[in-house]
Amino acid sequence: MGERSDARRNRERLLNAAAAAFAAAEGPVSLEAIARGAGVGIGTLYRHFPTREALTEAVYRAELAEVSASAGNLLERYRPVEALRRWMDRYAEFVATKQGMAESLRAVFDCGAVERNQTRATIVGAVEVMLAAGAADGSLRVDVRADDVVTSLLGIFLASGSQEQSARMVCLLVDGLVTTR
Q1: What does the pLDDT average to over 10-28?
Q2: Taking the chain, what is the end-to-end CA distance rounded to the nearest angstrom?
Q3: What percentage of the chain reaches a pLDDT higher than 70?
Q4: Partner residues linked to 178 by β-bridges
Q5: C-beta neighbour count of 1 within 10 angstroms
Q6: Residue 151, pLDDT score
Q7: CATH top-level class for 1-50?
Q8: Which residues make beta-bridge pairs with 140?
Q9: Per-residue pLDDT at 99
Q10: CATH of domain 53-177
């Protein structure tokens, strides 16, 4: 038997509230605050997510799936170079908003609930889709590996001193991917 619609709604509200709380936080987030933000009691949160790590894993998986799916959605609306640039902005946001869940996320990775290689493969797959579209229309270089783009992005996000510097560096990266006709 499937999950009741009110239980599904509560789960989604909890995931959305947790994602927003984690994104806004500079440190650990209280589970009580997440439950309040979702408009449910703490018991409801624990019924859906028995541990902080279970909630963290669910938020992480949902956001990773959204970031990955956004590649195709952006390609439907924009030319490949613009889609790639917008996707990189979305990915930067995904990476940056993990601060408030860093400790729990580390535990999720350490216990093997989410594998780093699986996460990387998902992100590389999204970049491959956009690079292939750009190669097909001649706007992006054909000799670039998606894994190299992801590695470059992570280096930018982790080493940049500010959001402004990160944005400039991403623009430089995109410029290096565009074909010179």
Answers
A1: 86
A2: 58
A3: 93
A4: 140
A5: 3
A6: 92
A7: mainly alpha
A8: 178
A9: 62
A10: 1.10.357.10
